[in-house]
Design goal:
Layout: H1 11-20, H2 42-60, H3 66-73, H4 77-83, H5 87-98, H6 104-110, H7 116-131, H8 134-146, H9 148-174, H10 182-207, H11 217-239, H12 243-250
Length: 251
């Protein structure tokens, strides 16, 4: 029987692919699965590894050796290293794959032609559809427990591109002066954290605790935004420079 022709494109990667995939356990004397000798394009194999790694990290977290990781995702350790020279490199790729960012969120926040409440509802409805997924929530929680840098990178972006701009737009809409001290600024950001957490926690309840969650997510977002806008401006007015002095004068 004639031998199949070898591909001359990326021969090293393809040869490793052919030998580097772990076959599924076969019962009795059954023939090996057809996928065990399948040649895949390097970019397809890399994407397959990333997808399996996402599922692995979402289920088991980031602990464990690369040997255990390779076994769990169904490839050999040498093949894993061929595509990702370290576990950290694979985790960085997983981060970029899961924690996608839509620049339109930032444009929406700053668009004062749209009422603030409508902007916030639209923003958090879109954002919730991105983050309230099993892989997103569980890898984020595991990362917070074992790999703090991943969360810090994302939360810094969230603070800079969502939290601070939202509070700036809120002050502009309600004619509230900006905080003058670092402590006042941090206290102000805690208020937007409460809105964000009320939406993020839906994912925690579903994918970590296994508890029921609201069926109508858009309605939940609208309620949380409504509560935020009905309470936060009054709190900011009290926190504004001179508010305490004015209050004393009124009394």
């Amino acid at each position: 029987m004639p031998r199949p022709k070898r591909s001359t494109t990326h021969p090293e990667v393809r040869a490793e692919d052919a030998a580097g995939v772990l076959p599924e356990p076969a019962a009795g004397m059954a023939t090996p699965p057809a996928t065990s000798g399948r040649r895949m394009l390097p970019e397809d194999r890399e994407q397959q590894i990333v997808e399996k790694a996402i599922e692995h990290f979402a289920t088991h977290g980031f602990s464990g050796s690369t040997r255990e990781l390779a076994k769990q995702i169904g490839v050999t350790q040498p093949l894993l290293y061929r595509y990702f020279p370290s576990k950290e490199a694979l985790i960085d790729r997983v981060y970029n794959e899961i924690y996608r960012w839509d620049p339109q969120w930032e444009s929406l926040i700053a668009d004062r032609s749209i009422p603030l409440q409508e902007r916030l509802c639209t923003l958090y409805k879109a954002y919730s559809r991105v983050i309230l997924q099993r892989e997103w929530i569980r890898t984020f929680i595991f990362a917070g427990l074992t790999r703090q840098g991943i969360n810090t990178r994302y939360l810094d972006k969230l603070r800079e591109r969502v939290f601070s701009p939202v509070m700036r737009e809120l002050r502009a809409a309600y004619d509230i002066p900006a905080p003058k001290t670092r402590a006042a600024q941090e206290a102000e950001l805690e208020l937007i954290w409460s809105l964000h957490a009320s939406i993020f926690y839906i994912g925690m309840r579903r994918w970590v605790y296994g508890l029921p969650v609201p069926k109508d997510l858009d309605a939940h977002v609208e309620r949380q935004v409504d509560a935020f806008l009905n309470g936060t401006p009054a709190v900011l007015q009290k926190m504004a420079p001179g508010a305490a002095l004015n209050g004393q004068r009124k009394r």
